[in-house]
Amino acid sequence: MSLSPYIPIVGLFALGAGFALFSVAIAPFVGPRRYNRAKLDAYECGIEPTPQPIGGGRFPVKFYLTAMLFIVFDIEIIFLYPWAVSFEALGVFGFVEMVLFIITVFVAYAYVWRRGGLDWD
Amino acid sequence: MTTDIAAETLKLPSLDYAALAPMLILFGVGCVGVLVEAIAPKKARFPVQLVLAVLGIAASLTAIVLAAGTEKVTAAGAVAVDGPGLFLQGSIAVLGLVALLLISERSLERGGAFVAQAAVTANSEADRDQATRGSGATEVYPLIIFSLGGMMLFAAANDLLTMFVALEVFSLPLYLLCAMARRRRLLSQEAALKYFLLGAFASAFFLFGIALVYGYAGRVDFAGIHAAVLDSPNDIALLYIGLAMVAIGLLFKAALAPFHVWTPDVYQGAPTPVTALMAACTKVAAFGGLLRVLYVAFERSQWDYRPVLGAIAVLTMLVGAVLAVTQTDIKRLLAYSSIANAGYVLVGVLAISKAGLASSLFYLVAYGFSVLAAFGIVTLVRDADGEATHLSRWAGLGRRSPLYATLFTFLLLAFAGIPLTSGFTAKFGVFAAAIEADQTWLVIAGVITSAIIAFPYLRVVVMMWLSEPGESTPAVSLPGALTAAAVTIGAAATLLLGIVPQPLLDMTENAAHFVR
């Protein structure tokens, strides 16, 4: 088996690694240094990971809920797209299956909605 | 143009709805259960969910009975409906129904054995508040129904990918259920986290094993793997490593040593009714999957895997028996007992014969009923702080409540394999099958470990009957109708399968043929 089809991939990998290393290495020399509070945060949005009260304490899970809901719909789209492309070939059977799939997704959605998963506060 | 090509090559799978009905019904009922949670008012949820779950499982069981005798592969080769598959599905439905009775008990503890919100920080004020009052979460019903549906699919899966999906479907609800005990919240959360992390590891092993087997066979369906074992041009090492990793995933779920380490912690921390469900139904499902993989897909590799799995069976029986001796908590003791029993089932499985298959099926059902009744009694021995699981608290229980001590003694004797109990018939069956298949060394190990594990059982019996009840010996709570029914069914089945095992033996004998 010839390995030649993989050479472009290796090339791309080297290019990517080179770019990342170059960016990190050059930044301290050419970039301006203006510090502010946001720059020292671990993340620019979401929950501050530190400091935490001793023994844990409570933290809001609304970001996680949003992310998980997003994934649910994301997955749904992933399945909808190929179905839409070959809609004619799949025919009525595919249509019924897809409707069943969407209904089950909405069962989960209805649960989240009724239980207050969509309320921000 | 593209659609034309698709139309030519695309073949829609033929679905035999009658054969798939047991699983479809449960998944449908699970979805309705989630909707009930979303829509029904809080007060109505518990009765509605209970009725819905019981009817759902009963309908599923009816569909299984109606499908009896079917032998076919359906859904594009993803699901095999055959004797062992239907028998296992039926066992899962019946044992699940009995476990559901334990789970639904609300007279022992106000609001049931579950908390409303498992994510509340343990020992916080809100947590103490929800432990003492407030109705438990009724989400457990859809979770259990989904889990049972996944187990049924797992026992009938005819390719490795379907099997993996089924594994996740029945495991994920169990992880959640483990975290929902009303009392001893930290233990419960620890159990759930441990089970989840280790279960995720095992799933990863299983998935990587699938990839390697696919690399060897070029197929993931069991018939394809079976054919490839004979004539695949690929390196045989791929097959061995793949099979080993797939087996690790299955052995983990069946709690066989050295992949058993999670069992005592999880069985102890989980709410006792859920422990009963896991010990009975998960074991049936896990062995169902293991049987199908070993008998259908890798039958031709049996000379390679038999010694390894034989060593695992011996190790499992030894670990279960020896460590049971040192336990001081009744739930942990029963957990090690279930590990040892898994070893005995594996002895039957390793006969790789019709008799081995039939005796393993019988063992799983017999053990399932006994363990459900045993954990049912554990839920009854309690004081103001919940269940009294430390063994010292069981001292003198025979004087306080002779009925339940007698029942528990009977169940322990069944676990020990004393004649006239189902434990004897079951053990006799697997050992006879193993001797027939020239696996005498497994039987010798089995008999020796049976003698060892009889000791902890008898110690509990002696404790209950021959010690004086101390101040800390709790009185046995009067069981509600549901727990009483579950314990009665479990104990009656243990007795009946010991005295008149023939109907079930005939059933397993007739069922013991896999379709490929």
Percent of residues in helices of chain B: over 70%
Quick one: how many beta strands of chain A? 0
| Helix content percent band of chain A | 55-70%
Distance between the termini of chain B: 38 Å
CATH topology of chain A: Methane Monooxygenase Hydroxylase, Chain G, domain 1
Q: Name the overall outline of chain A.
A: flat
What is the ordering of alpha helices and beta strands of chain A?
HHHH
Reading the helices and strands of chain B in chain order gives HHHEEHHHHHHHHHHHHEEHHHHHH
Question: How would you sum up the major sheet of chain B?
Answer: 2 strands, antiparallel
Radius of gyration of chain B: 22 Å
Helix count of chain A equals 4
**How many separate helices of chain B?**
21
Number of domains of chain A: 1
Lateral arrangement of strands in the main beta sheet of chain B? 1-2
Q: How many β-strand stretches of chain B?
A: 4
How much strand content do the residues of chain A show? under 5%
Give the chain pair forming the largest contact, with residue counts: A-B, 21 and 14 residues
Low-confidence stretches of chain B: none
- The oligomeric status of these chains comes to heterodimer
Secondary structure topology:
The complex is a heterodimer of chains A (121) and B (516).
Chain A: H1 7-30, H2 37-40, H3 62-85, H4 87-114
Helix pairs in contact in A: 3-4
Chain B: H1 2-9, H2 17-39, H3 42-66, E1 72-74, E2 79-81, H4 83-104, H5 125-132, H6 140-156, H7 160-178, H8 185-217, H9 222-231, H10 236-253, H11 262-269, H12 272-297, H13 302-325, H14 330-349, H15 354-380, E3 382-383, E4 386-387, H16 397-400, H17 402-416, H18 422-436, H19 440-466, H20 481-499, H21 502-511
Antiparallel strand pairs in B: 1-2, 3-4
